Amino acid sequence: MTRRVLPGVVLVVALATVGCSPDEYVAPPPAQGTEVAAAATAADTLAALQDAVAAGDGAAASDLATAGARALVESVATNAHAIGLTDVTFRYVTETGRTSGADAWDGLVALTWRVDGFDGASARAEVPMSFADGGRRIAAIGDQTGRLPVWLTGPVTVERVPGALVLASDDPSGSPTGRTSYARWARKAVAEARAVVGGRTGLVVEVPRDATALHRALGADPGSYGSIAAVTAPVDGSRVPGSPIHVFLNRAVYDDLDAVAAQVVMTHEAVHALTGAVLARNVPLWLVEGFADYVALRDVGLPLAKTAGQIRSQVRKNGVPKALPEDAEFNPAGTHLGAVYEAAWQVTVTLAHRRGEQALVDFYRAMLGGKKLAPALRAAFDWSVADLTAGWQAQLAMLAGVPQ
């Protein structure tokens, strides 16, 4: 199943963003069975873990683990309690191979979970686990492949603020960098997003330990999001209506942003998450990304030399673009990516200048709701796509100080 993710903006010298890219989840092939795997015993162990998680009983969870995995398995229960997870289930699926030990094997476990008060439905994933002692003990959670939720990777710190919940893996360096700030930025992001789009939906922000854990949480190939600050994505990669959508921060990049840039990134991502843009189909990315920047930059007061510097330089050098940005131009591996995002932002600014902010918001919601571009544009702005393109080109020419 193809999923859409919306990686976030990065403001260093000028505001830049990186685009969307699809990937696919492929179920692992069945492994050859062995005489070691005891499915019924493993299922009983998982049922006991499920009870420990429901009770928030870290000690009971720890008793189900081997010596080397006790701290990890204990954290599963304590994390779930701190986050407020509900609908947590563990179900043994199948054996996937052998691991060290005469009575040990690797298996696949189907997992469900939901952040109470934030997620409208449960997330679902299949997570590798290693079993020992004939299935009576859990020896490991996760391997080098597949999706691994952040709350299963070790202890997390949880902060709750009005409208948002932030869960951050303990920093392996021991640094407290960002924890309070993450929550403060998330709180302001929700307020800024709601001021434009309304609603009462809450925001969940997850901060994996490092880039490797980020890619595991997203089920993405290593390096796919190594240079970005944040990603908004369905928690389990699905695009089923109602799928939980969270913001995932790349602390290696995000923590190096200044306070203004960090807030812009968080608000941009909050717009994606709170409006369900990740699940929208057939909506041009110039609108999805441009609108998120419109909200994030609305009250910032940064000079255009910073927020639109790249597109201004490009227009001065090459003239105005001949057409609105294509989806392919938002590919994270693309060139002139910052200019593409700035150009998309200016499309939404052009629309707001035409009929006001509320008309822009109504148009955005109509498009997310499945309306086609041409009739939605005509209804909201009395413009054709050609009219919008001409208005946007005039806006860019004015910004760059060049004749159209």
Name the descriptors.
404 residues, alpha+beta, Neutral Protease, domain 2, Nuclear Transport Factor 2, Chain: A, 2 domains, four-stranded antiparallel β-sheet, 14 helices, elongated
| Distance linking N and C termini | 44 Å
Count of discrete domains: 2
Overall number of strands: 14
Radius of gyration, taken over Cα atoms and rounded to an integer in Å: 23 Å
The CATH H-level homologous superfamily of the largest domain: Neutral Protease Domain 2
CATH class of the largest domain: Mainly Alpha
SSE arrangement, N to C: EEEEEHHHEEEEEEHEHEEHHHHHHHHH
Name the structural class: alpha+beta
Give the second-level CATH assignment, the architecture of the largest domain.
Orthogonal Bundle
Distinct helical segment count: 14
Helicity, in percent? 40-55%
**Strand arrangement across the biggest beta sheet:** 2-13-14-12-11-10
What oligomeric state is this? single chain
Look at the structure and give the mean pLDDT. Answer: 90
